[in-house]
């Protein structure tokens, strides 16, 4: 039996007294894999994970995806995507300002990620919290008429569109990167494949439009759904400590980074990304 405490009344647990670096924790990790379906987010603090062990733990959740921005796979293990403001030898070791919008990881591919495992290697003493919102809670709190209206809508997710907005100051995506990330359509309401529970599947910047609506109506509906989805009542704010591992379910949560003084402080985060299936 794992010792846990709740992080938010509606989702998210912290698992206490667990050392993931210990190979004897494998049975507990398999329990976390099952718990994730029901709790959407799991925090384990005080970890000392080598890159190899981070990948090994992550693999118990499923096969891992490698990020399209190869320049940020800098640990020697291609499964680890680095988020950081740090440069070494004049080169960034990770993507800075990754996730500074509300999103679900890799929603812009046909088979988006089912979950991510983000490990904090170095964190600023202030700022840089990550916000997580439960899209189950968000969907369930919508008025029934809105649920009905959006139930069978789809939306177009575009990585190229997002990249152009978020990273306008950088070199554009290469043809190869663009070829790996064509626009895709996903349902606006998706079903959790193991629990059957419904959730909203929206996001800022990555969604180009809600399909079949005139642009103004699409923009207005998307803005209203996003605003609703990130209401305080559905959000858990994570204040990072070094050695935290946060595991979240991308099928039913969104998350968003918050700013910090990036001139003063270093931040180094390692993410693995578990493959998922086509949303329905
Ligand atoms: C991510 C992400 C936000 C943050 O790792 O996928 O969006 O606060 N991170 O680092
Ligand atoms: Mn993210």
CA radius of gyration is 18 Å
The fold-level CATH name of the largest domain is Double-stranded beta-helix
**Total strands:** 18
Separate helix tally: 7
How would a crystallographer describe the biggest sheet? 8 strands, mixed
Heteromolecules bound: N-oxalylglycine, manganese (II) ion
User: What is the overall pLDDT average?
Assistant: 97
By secondary-structure content and strand pairing, the structural class works out as alpha+beta
* Number of structural units classed as domains: 2
Stretches where pLDDT is under 50 for at least 5 consecutive residues are: none
Helicity range: 10-25%
Proportion of strand residues: 25-35%
Gross CATH architecture of the largest domain = 4-Layer Sandwich
N-to-C span: 33 Å
Helix-strand topology string = EEHEHEEEEEEHHEHHEEEEHEEEE
Assign an overall shape.
globular
CATH fourth-tier homologous superfamily of the largest domain: Clavaminate synthase-like
């Amino acid at each position: 039996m794992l010792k846990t405490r709740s992080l938010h009344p509606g989702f998210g647990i912290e698992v206490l007294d667990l050392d993931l670096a210990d190979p004897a924790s494998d049975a507990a990790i398999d329990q976390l894999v099952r718990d994730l379906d029901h709790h959407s987010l799991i925090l384990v603090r005080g970890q000392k994970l080598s890159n190899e062990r981070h990948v090994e733990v992550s693999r118990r959740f499923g096969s891992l995806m490698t990020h399209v921005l190869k320049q940020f796979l800098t640990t020697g293990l291609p499964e680890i995507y680095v988020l950081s403001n740090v440069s070494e030898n004049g080169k960034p070791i990770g993507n800075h300002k990754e996730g500074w919008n509300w999103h679900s990881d890799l929603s812009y591919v046909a088979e988006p990620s089912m979950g991510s495992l983000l490990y904090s290697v170095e964190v600023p003493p202030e700022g840089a919290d990550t916000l997580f919102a439960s899209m189950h809670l968000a969907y369930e709190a919508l008025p029934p008429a809105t649920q009905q209206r959006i139930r069978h809508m789809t939306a177009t997710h575009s990585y190229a569109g997002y990249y152009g907005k978020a990273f306008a100051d950088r070199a554009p995506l290469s043809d190869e990167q663009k070829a790996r990330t064509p626009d895709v359509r996903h349902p606006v309401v998706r079903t959790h494949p193991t629990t059957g529970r419904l959730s909203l599947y929206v996001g800022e910047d990555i969604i180009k439009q809600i399909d079949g609506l005139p642009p103004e109506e699409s923009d207005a509906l998307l803005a209203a759904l996003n605003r609703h989805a990130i209401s305080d009542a559905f959000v858990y704010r994570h204040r990072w400590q070094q050695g935290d591992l946060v595991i979240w379910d991308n099928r039913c949560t969104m998350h968003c980074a918050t700013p910090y003084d990036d001139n003063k402080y270093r931040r180094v985060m390692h993410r693995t990304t578990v493959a998922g299936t086509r949303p329905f």
